[in-house]
Write a structure and sequence with these properties.
- With about 475 residues, the protein is mainly beta.
- Strands 13-14-15-16-17 form a five-stranded antiparallel β-sheet, with no helix packed on it. A five-stranded mixed β-sheet has the order 26-30-31-32-33, with no helix packed on it.
Length: about 475
């Protein structure tokens, strides 16, 4: 027999009702129980949904942080509002290529010239650890500046520091570099500051006064008591010597005016992984990092070679000429017209490209063949950022984005309060200052989509900040008293 249907109403049981009464009073209690179970279930589902939502947000933030860590020159993801946090010591030199946005690892020089390696907490400015490198040099007859100590990022959570007591002494219009008497190589745990290893930075009688990282090696440059120059490489982990190469004497009078270079010779790592010694006479020696073999005779220069830093700690070395510059490469040098544009950010999506500016134009030059791939008319370009197959060119008044393959202009935007350090990016968005409507003295950062320049978000700035720039993975504002870290 088919049962009929009827409406059922769940009624709240009045206080004091008898649970053991007739069936007519039992149903409301059961209904109330079902209702509370439903509410509890809904709450559980809601909390679970919040947990899932929070997990999604956390995962998104982790992805943004990982993206920032993968992009040389990028800053940590920005909050919705930035506030002034702390002022960095002007004598704090961050380790090139260090990419932990929570910590600044640097060489710090005290007022008396003493030096130590430090790790500074990026949000607060607190010193997490400090390792002494050199004591104060004492009086040397003029203004004294350290001229050799540097730290290098050599792997995950490790740095290697060359501590050398070489100093540039300036007396009036003359200057000289002292001969080092002590040179040490320290391997540090960048998380704790623990000294994992310490070795003398010397090859025979030659003490090191410059260092660079090439793959898993630390390449050192030094001079012996007779004035002979030597380059040698040691393992970044145990400082075991891998190879050594003597250098021919430098001719310090060949530069224009016979003045020679300012400061001592230096050793750096080129974009192709070659070790390059830039010497006092303006010449450059290229060495194979595998065995230290000289790749060619010293390349002479009619003027001091230009060293153009890259965001990952490597450099481009350009020997200037009358009509062009020669960018040094192990596999064959590349000639460019004009000067290289400084690349501040690089995610690796535009490999094998050199950018040169000349006469109001920027040319993209193949770093292997020297062929000009494209040219775009953007005058007064001061920096470039390479992201997702696009080249973002900055001038004092304009941000222009072009396709890295073709040079086609994709979009452009006026700049307000920008600096020559290029754009600020977290690897996902580009951030540029913009005046706040109705507040002439206030600015905010707008997060721009790299693909089309559309505004995707805004970040509030402190009232007295008009421009920002990246610094060691953080965002800093420049003021009359120096940089100010925002966070």
């Amino acid at each position: 027999m088919r049962r009929g249907t009827r409406d059922v109403e769940l009624v709240e049981e009045p206080p004091g009702a008898d649970a053991g009464g007739d069936p007519g009073t039992a149903r409301p209690r059961a209904g109330r129980a079902r209702r509370w179970w439903a509410v509890a279930g809904a709450v559980a589902v809601g909390l679970g949904g919040l947990g899932i939502a929070q997990a999604v947000v956390d995962a998104r933030e982790r992805d943004r942080l990982e993206r920032a860590l993968d992009v040389a020159g990028a800053v940590a993801p920005l909050p919705d509002a930035l506030a002034a946090r702390w002022s960095p010591d002007p004598h704090l030199a961050p380790v090139p290529g260090w990419r932990d946005p929570r910590t600044v690892v640097a060489v710090r020089t005290a007022a008396d010239g003493a030096q130590d390696a430090v790790a500074v907490d990026t949000p607060s400015g607190d010193v997490r650890w400090s390792v002494p490198l050199l004591p104060a040099p004492g009086e040397r007859g003029g203004a004294t500046e350290p001229a050799g100590t540097r730290c290098l990022a050599t792997g995950e959570h490790r740095v290697v520091c060359l501590a050398v007591d070489a100093y540039l002494v300036v007396e009036g219009t003359s200057s000289f570099t002292t001969t080092p008497t002590t040179a040490r190589l320290l391997v540090l745990d960048a998380t704790t500051g623990e000294v994992l290893a310490e070795h003398a930075a010397r090859h025979g009688d030659a003490l090191a006064h410059a260092a660079t990282r090439v793959a898993d090696l630390v390449v050192l440059l030094g001079t012996d008591p007779a004035g002979g120059s030597h380059v040698w490489a040691v393992d970044a982990e145990d400082a075991r010597e891998r190879w050594a190469t003597p250098l021919p004497p430098a001719e310090v009078d060949v530069l224009s005016g016979g003045a020679g270079a300012v400061g001592p010779a230096d050793v750096r790592t080129l974009a192709d992984g070659t070790a390059a010694v830039v010497r006092e006479d303006g010449s450059v020696v290229l060495l194979d990092p595998e065995d230290g073999r000289r790749l060619r005779a010293p390349l002479p220069g009619t003027a001091q070679a230009h060293v153009v830093p890259l965001p990952d700690g490597r450099v481009e070395v350009v020997v200037p000429g009358r009509e062009h510059g020669t960018v040094l490469r192990a596999g064959g040098d590349v000639r460019v017209t004009g000067s290289l544009v400084a690349v501040r950010v690089d995610d690796g999506s535009v490999p094998g490209l050199l950018l040169a500016r000349d006469g109001g134009h920027v040319r993209a030059v193949d770093a292997r063949t020297g062929e000009v791939r494209w040219e775009v008319a953007v005058p007064l370009v001061d920096a470039a950022s390479l992201l997702d197959g696009r080249v973002h060119l900055t001038t004092p008044v304009l941000l222009a984005t072009v396709d890295a393959r073709t040079g086609a202009l994709l979009w452009e935007r006026p700049r307000e309060g920008a600096s020559f350090f290029g754009v600020v990016t977290d690897g996902t968005l580009l951030y540029e200052p913009r005046r706040v409507a109705g507040a002439a003295r206030r600015r905010e950062l707008v997060g721009l989509d790299p693909a089309d320049g559309a505004v995707r978000r805004t970040v509030a700035l402190p009232s007295d900040v008009t421009s920002v720039q990246p610094w060691a993975g953080a965002v800093v504002a420049l003021g009359a008293d120096g940089p100010l870290v925002l966070g």
